[in-house]
From TrEMBL, chain A:
Xref: SUPFAM superfamilies: Thiamin diphosphate-binding fold (THDP-binding) (SSF52518)
Name used for this protein in its record: Pyruvate dehydrogenase E1 component subunit alpha
Domain spans labelled Dehydrogenase E1 component: 41-338
InterPro entries listed in its UniProt record: DH_E1, PDH_E1_Alpha_Subunit, Pyrv_DH_E1_asu_subgrp-y, THDP-binding
EC number from the UniProt entry: 1.2.4.1
Gene: pdhA
Cofactor(s) listed in the protein's UniProt record: thiamine diphosphate
CDD domains: TPP_E1_PDC_ADC_BCADC
GO biological process annotation, one example: pyruvate decarboxylation to acetyl-CoA
Disordered: region residues: 1-31, 326-347
Subunit: Heterodimer of an alpha and a beta chain.
Gene3D superfamilies, per the entry: 3.40.50.970
Basic and acidic residues composition bias: residue spans: 1-19
Catalytic activity: N(6)-[(R)-lipoyl]-L-lysyl-[protein] + pyruvate + H(+) = N(6)-[(R)-S(8)-acetyldihydrolipoyl]-L-lysyl-[protein] + CO2
Automatic annotation (TrEMBL), chain B:
Species, as recorded: Methylobacterium aquaticum
Keywords from the named record: Lipoyl, Oxidoreductase, Pyruvate, Thiamine pyrophosphate
Protein name: Pyruvate dehydrogenase E1 component subunit beta
GO MF entries: pyruvate dehydrogenase (acetyl-transferring) activity
Subunit and partners: Heterodimer of an alpha and a beta chain.
Cofactors that this protein relies on: thiamine diphosphate; (R)-lipoate
PANTHER family: DEHYDROGENASE RELATED (PTHR11624), PYRUVATE DEHYDROGENASE E1 COMPONENT SUBUNIT BETA, MITOCHONDRIAL (PTHR11624:SF96)
Keyword Oxidoreductase: yes
Catalyzed reaction equations: N(6)-[(R)-lipoyl]-L-lysyl-[protein] + pyruvate + H(+) = N(6)-[(R)-S(8)-acetyldihydrolipoyl]-L-lysyl-[protein] + CO2
Biased composition (Basic and acidic residues): 110-127
EC number: 1.2.4.1
GO biological process: pyruvate decarboxylation to acetyl-CoA
Region (Disordered): 81-143
InterPro entries to which the protein is assigned, alphabetical: 2-oxoA_DH_lipoyl-BS, Biotin_lipoyl, PDHB_mito-type, Single_hybrid_motif, THDP-binding, Transketo_C/PFOR_II, Transketolase-like_Pyr-bd, Transketolase_C
């Protein structure tokens, strides 16, 4: 009873803020091609995650599976602002980041199903995939650990003087971990090229931000270290790219780290087993209706950009085909050879 | 009445130091708190403060004298009005003990300096009497059929070095050889290392490659691992492995597991190093031996050298290793000297134990500072007609079972020695392996000598009881020989 009351309280508090976080009136417009690109990329993540949810329901994906649905504009906007050579590292809600980095959907899906064609040969799973080739450094299951690691990647960039920027993602939950602040301190002290992207989707598992955070403005979390930060409408891919461009330039120019609080929302539960008692169906429905990142772009494509509906449908069909192929591959690919148990422990 | 001023101990493990400079001369009046002299050890320079007032009657140890033992009278203080010329050393009211307390004015910086030194020689209690302190270095005289000596070509010139110097040289040589190698940690650069292991590295390699970190173990361990993921080769120094417990998530979850979780894509060429285990009188939170903890984790290599030569050769191998290596040092061993081969590039392979002393009657398996107990015990056992074979594991993981099993097949008996706790310890692991691999050869149960199953106490007598000692090793060896 108490727990239910508590959960309702959390939900009430967030409902007040459930309106879109920003009105992006002064956000620079995207060209037709940019919007088309963003649409295709975000839709790929959306459809991929929906398919992952289905496969999970069918028992093909095991363990944990944290879906990115609703947050697509964040990673796509940041990727649109990044350059080749910049690295990406994130926590456990990582499928979207992998696709955004250009990793093969087949390899990602096959890892989810634990097959030999998966990025980690079936030995990592949903939370543990990497691609050196695409500069994707995981995929980390310990909340907040990726923040120190991403700071280390920034350290290496500065050490080598190669001009690369470490794009280090975390959620609002991870943002309360101690090592995050240890990392902020070192990153600013040493002026490391790191952009910290805090994806505030309002819930750390089932705990709303206001129930877990004394300072709910995450852009201020670097203030005592002198790290600049800003809040961004993370549902608008244009606003994300705009802010990320600024942040990445700051980091690349040797000015040190930058914090971007992306105000976003996850439509699905924390993981597949989440009963979602901590928020109302209403709240989720309203976010989907009013702020959906993909729908925003679709409207612009059909409206201002006057893209014919057929062309958009063709994109939809292509994305669906890619996702279906990935699911098919991930279903039919064999499990790892038993001998794989003993490989990759040491080099 | 005149009192002796004694050579103070700057830290609990200091045994001797250099009397660098007198700041007062004979005949000078002295007030309490006056700085009398400067003394130096290999780790620090400190000032000797006067505790009593009087006149500095006689200087007994001149400026620049090296190796002055702690508690040696270095000067005589006459009371005011007393004839300074008439006083004599040793004839004073002082006895070593309370004088020493009276004279150790400089409070050691416990975190940086003092955590580990040994108790002053006179800080013995009754509990000591039958057993010598295990701390003094064993002289390596009997290296008869030392297979590992093959690592050193015949005729190689040997130089005497402390473990401390050997570790520093290993890092410096690897940093010269490979510019992706860098060292980071608390006080590694400007302070020259809390235990002076990184002495001189900042001067040679500059602040880019010798990086002072804030006191933030969890964070900088993660930074090191992240840098290693990109292919750099960090040496992460922990001021002690006790503090690495704050960072153990990054060591295990990030460094050790990622290669496997990435299907072989993302290796982590990193070394985590620093002093491990008990030093002296530093209490439970600064005395933990983590060998067994890290040895439990697939994806890590765990090294714990005893000699300076192994420390150097193994650290160089660890730095070159493409895997995460936990390199466990020991503060008491830092200042001990051993012969080290004078070679341009001397490495010792990880994963190879060393038969340090050959014997036919009983095998004693140990590592790190455990060797000091084992070698002394072996010496005394020899006098009693028992020839012990002493094996230094050197690497804890991967463990060189083969060498241990071969020895036990010969001797039929085994005693293990470690400072860590008994349950799930290294000795337990060895016993289990021998049960499988040498069952038919064992003439007695494997006995373990370990630290006692208690948090490390502070009191000198209790700490001594908590650690293994030579008498226990001898008793165990005799027991398995039914003697």
């Amino acid at each position: 009873m108490e727990a239910a009351k508590e959960a309702r309280r959390g939900s009430d508090e967030t409902r007040e803020k459930a309106a879109p976080p920003h009105t992006a009136s002064n956000v620079p417009a995207f060209s037709r091609d940019e919007d088309l690109h963003a649409y295709r990329e975000m839709l790929l993540i959306r459809r991929f995650e929906e398919k992952a949810g289905q496969l999970y329901g069918m028992g093909l994906i095991g363990g944990f599976c944290h879906l990115y649905i609703g947050q697509e504009a964040v990673v796509i906007g940041v990727q649109m602002a990044s350059k080749d050579g910049d690295q990406v590292i994130t926590g456990y809600r990582d499928h979207g980041h992998m696709l955004a980095c250009g990793m093969d959907p087949k390899g990602v899906m096959a890892e989810l199903t634990g097959r030999r064609g998966g990025y980690s040969r079936g030995k990592g799973g949903s939370m543990h995939m990497f691609s050196r080739e695409k500069n994707f450094y995981g995929g980390h299951g310990i909340v907040g650990a990726q923040v120190s690691l991403g700071t280390g990647i920034g350290f290496a960039n500065k050490y080598r003087g190669d001009g690369a920027v470490s794009l280090t993602y975390m959620g609002d939950g991870a943002a309360n971990q101690g090592q995050v602040y240890e990392s902020f301190n070192m990153a600013q002290l040493w002026k490391l090229p790191v952009v910290y992207v805090i994806e505030n989707n309002r819930y750390a598992m089932g705990t709303s931000v206001s129930r877990a955070s004394a300072q709910t403005d995450f852009s201020k979390r670097g203030v005592s270290f002198g790290i600049p930060g800003e809040q961004v409408d993370g549902m608008d891919v244009r606003a994300v790219r705009e802010a990320a461009t600024r942040a990445i330039a700051h980091a690349r120019d040797g000015e040190g780290p930058y914090i971007l609080e992306m105000q976003t929302y996850r439509y699905r539960g924390h993981s597949m087993s989440d009963p979602a008692k901590y928020r109302t169906k209403d709240e989720v429905a309203r976010m989907r209706e009013e702020s959906d990142p993909i729908e925003q772009v679709r409207k612009r494509l059909l409206g201002a950009h006057t893209v014919p509906e057929d062309e958009i449908k063709a994109v939809d069909a292509k994305v669906r085909e890619i996702v279906n192929e990935s699911a098919e591959f991930a279903t039919n690919d064999p499990e790892p050879d038993p001998s794989e148990l003993w490989t990759d422990i040491l080099l | 009445m005149a009192t002796d001023i004694l050579m103070p101990a700057l830290s609990p493990t200091m045994e001797q130091g250099k009397l660098a400079k007198w700041l007062k001369k004979e005949g000078d009046p002295v007030k309490a708190g006056d700085i009398l002299a400067e003394i130096e050890t290999d780790k620090a320079t400190m000032e000797v403060e006067a505790v009593d007032e009087g006149v500095l009657a006689k200087i007994l140890v001149a400026d620049g004298t090296d190796n002055v033992a702690v508690n040696t009278p270095i000067a005589v203080l006459a009371e005011e009005g007393e004839d300074p010329k008439g006083v004599q050393a040793g004839g004073s009211k002082a006895n070593g003990k309370d004088k020493q307390e009276g004279q150790t004015a400089p409070a050691p910086d416990m975190h940086a300096e003092g955590q580990a030194e040994r108790p002053a020689p006179d800080a013995k209690t009754e509990a000591d009497t039958p057993v010598e302190t295990p701390a003094s270095p064993a002289v390596i005289t009997n290296r008869s059929d030392d297979r590992a000596m093959a690592e050193i070509p015949e005729g190689t010139e040997m130089v005497t070095q402390t473990v401390r110097e050997a570790l520093r040289d290993a890092m410096a040589e690897e940093m010269r050889r490979d510019d992706t190698v860098f060292v980071m940690g608390e006080e590694v650069a400007e302070y020259q290392g809390a235990y002076k292991i990184t002495q001189g590295l900042l001067q040679e390699f500059g602040p880019k490659r010798v990086v002072d970190t804030p006191i933030t173990e969890h964070g900088f361990a993660g930074v090191g691992v992240g840098a290693a993921f990109t292919g750099l080769r960090p040496i992460v120094e922990f001021m002690t492995f006790n503090f690495a417990m704050q960072a153990i998530d990054q060591i295990i979850n990030s460094a050790a597991k990622t290669l496997y979780m990435s299907g072989g894509q993302l290796g982590c060429p990193i070394v985590f190093r620093g002093p491990n285990g008990a030093a002296a009188r530093v209490g439970a939170q600064h005395s933990h031996d983590y060998a067994a903890w890290y040895s439990n984790v697939p994806g890590l290599k765990v090294v714990m050298p005893y000699t300076a030569s192994d420390a150097k050769g193994l650290l160089k191998s660890a730095i070159r290793d493409p895997n995460p290596v936990v390199f466990l040092e020991n503060e008491i061993l830092y200042g001990q000297s051993f012969p080290v081969p004078k070679l341009d590039d001397f490495t010792v392979p990880i994963g190879k134990a060393k038969v340090h002393r050959a014997g036919k009657d009983v095998t004693i398996v140990t590592f790190g500072i455990g060797m000091t107990y084992a070698l002394k015990a072996a010496h005394e056992l020899a006098e009693a007609g028992i020839e012990a074979e002493v094996i230094d594991l050197r690497t804890i993981r991967p463990m060189d079972s083969e060498t241990v099993v071969a020895s036990v097949k010969k001797t039929g008996r085994c005693v293990t020695v470690e400072e860590g706790f008994p349950q799930s310890g290294i000795g337990a692991e060895i016993a289990a392996r021998l049960m499988v691999d040498a069952f038919d050869y064992l003439d007695a149960p494997v006995l373990r000598i370990t630290g006692k199953d208690v948090p490390m106490p502070y009191a000198a007598n209790l700490e001594k009881l908590a650690l293994p000692n030579v008498a226990e090793v001898i008793a165990a060896a005799k027991a398995v020989c039914y003697r």
